[in-house]
Amino acid sequence: MKGHEKMARMEDILSLPVQDPPCEEFSAAHLKWVKVGGGRLGGDDIALIPFARVGDFVKGESGNAACPANFRVESRRKRAEGSVRKPRVDGYLEYTLYWCSYGPDDYRDTESIFGDNSNAKPASGKGSRPGRRHMMRGCQCHFTVKRLYTRPLIALLVYNLRNHVDKSGSPCHGILDQDAIGTRAMYAPRISEELRQKVMAMLYAGVSLDSIVQHHMEFVHKNGGPNNRDDFLTRNDVRNMERLIHSSSHQLHLVDESSVAIWSQRHSKHVFFFQEASGAEPLILGLQTDWQMQQMLHLGQNGCIASHSAFGLKKLKSPLCSLLVFDSSQNAIPVAWVISSCDASEGIHKWMGPLMERIRAKDNRWRPSAFLLDDPSFNTSVIREVFQCRVLLNLWHVRRSWIKGLMKRCLNFDVQREMFKQLGRILYCTKTGSGVRDAVEEFMQIFVDHCSFMDYFKSHCLAKLDLLVKAINTLPVASQESHAAIESYHLRLNSNFVNACHSDSRPRNDWLIHILTTEVHSLYWFDQYITETGFFEDLKDLSLSPNSWSRALLIPDTDVLLDALNPDIAKVISQTDRKLAYTLWNPGSEFSFCDCPWARRGNVCKHAIKVSLICKHRQIASPSLNAQEIKGLKDLSNSGLLPPLQSDRSVRQDDSFVFYPRTQ
């Protein structure tokens, strides 16, 4: 311990300083203790800490190197506010007694006499504690936590007995106990939270019980044998966790809002912001696990943070916004989730600040290089202020929704290609000196016969065009590499939620929380574990396989054919059939269009990414509407797929602008 100050009187307790160590978990050694003179606490060591950090203290005390232990709740009492007229100086709202799990009863002699006789009673007369009898070694180490009645935010720690000894004063477990050497009593009585999370993630990811146990035994053997309690993991440990998964339910209350509130209270460590839905206030719940925080700290430092907003807008009760980072293979990894019953852009000023406070509490030097924004309605000034980095516009969501709308409502591939190109021209129209309205009118005039898409365009796209165009004029545009990574994450989420979202009613918010923090989280954790260790390669989730950006890097530059005389088209030789070459229109653009099967399903393909990388390297940009493109429109018109083109079209042949995404 840091030491003791002079003896204090009971009435001086509230004048003691409140200690808040900067480390995440802390123990008695991090605190200055005061010994109480006289009264009910006479001779005990006391200290004040924030009540919110009691859990951190309990965990820190459990990590004692000489006597590893777990402290369990032996007894607990609560009082309601206002129930006491004149509370004592140490009066409590909540009283909790924590006792070392190796005590207080002692079964060491009992077991030697009675063997496995479960009817044997301990000397204290309290009766047997099911499932814990083999651990009881008479340890008397215990402390009390009081949430003070007059100061509810403060906890009074009362260490009644600090040493892990039995009633005779002798060490009863840990390395100081000679009888415990070579047995489990040398170590903590239960597996660590880290190992529990690891095993739970493997179970959620589909790894069998036998495979987990076998893998753990091999791992322990590889590291020279057992060194702590975790190394003694048994089938029974894993089976208990498996049963817990099967018996757990996301529904903690019949009312969804109450269920979410209960979950948030039970898992407060993983909640960085919570606002209950009440009156005009929407539900906002920000989630981040310890593993996600580690990824954000590691991969987000001098890297990019990207938003994936409004997922499940039509199918979930409350849409989901994800914050993503990118690993060395350009795979998107979720590092925070925000569930909100309002538009995600409306609440960012509430949850974004607390998230950054959480991150910078771990590393106050942490700072990303850029924030990739997929929703232009987000307040960019809030993002710049919070993250202190530049903001880039990511058009993946716009691109995907438009191309999906085209493929669903227009069946002719050539018309799809031209319409997609013209939609891109609308977004960048102000770069050429023309206005949005003129560009839209021209687009609707050219493709007037395609009524299905025009109806979709008017009802779903027109209202957002001005906002998009304004964002493009004020923000740099992110490259297509990020498109592929975010799209891969989007498809992963779809596969997780597809079954529930096909039901008639929208899934509850507590269900969404459960799926995110168990199945989705475990899949990403397990994928990283496979990558780092090389184990379980045969169980790697195919949906987390390399995205289009990673696949594009495998295509040789010599397999990309660019024609200087026809810059509007590129060819990429197939990597599986060398006799086949895919055609890419409008190369180097966010609105490029490939005829490969993956792209024709509305996705960003590896061919588009590869050509984009080459265009960037060679500083090649594709004009939006050059003479060849006008010829393409005329060809469609002559074939009857488009109405006759007017000779006085407002778009000039020299009307060109750079589609290529900016990086500065």
From TrEMBL:
<dbReference type="Pfam" id="PF04434">
    <property type="entry name" value="SWIM"/>
</dbReference>
<feature type="domain" description="SWIM-type">
    <location>
        <begin position="582"/>
        <end position="616"/>
    </location>
</feature>
<keyword id="KW-0863">Zinc-finger</keyword>
<keyword id="KW-0479">Metal-binding</keyword>
<dbReference type="InterPro" id="IPR007527">
    <property type="entry name" value="Znf_SWIM"/>
</dbReference>
<feature type="region of interest" description="Disordered">
    <location>
        <begin position="113"/>
        <end position="132"/>
    </location>
</feature>
<dbReference type="GO" id="GO:0008270">
    <property type="term" value="F:zinc ion binding"/>
</dbReference>
<keyword id="KW-0862">Zinc</keyword>
<protein>
    <recommendedName>
        <fullName>SWIM-type domain-containing protein</fullName>
    </recommendedName>
</protein>
